[in-house]
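Here is an idea for our session: we take a single protein and study its fold together. Which protein we use is up to you, so please pick one and set it down. Once you have written the record down, we can walk along the chain together:
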Amino acid sequence: MNQDNTDALMPFTLDLTFDEARRRTEVMAALGPDWDPVAALQGEDEAYALLYSGLDAEQQRTYDMLVAAGVLPGEGPGRAPSH
């Protein structure tokens, strides 16, 4: 068999648009009508603030160093580490 013979190859394409729309519909249905994305984000912000509250001086220095290095996210919108 000649492995360099690309003329015999058939193009293969797969459109996942319908499946992605169905998946998103199922996710929204699973979340239910009472899901409040704003409240969910506020809860995440509160949990994040609580996670890093009450640090002693050494812990705070380590936290600040990790934020400056981009390992941990800092304060502000789109809080995500840079690495």
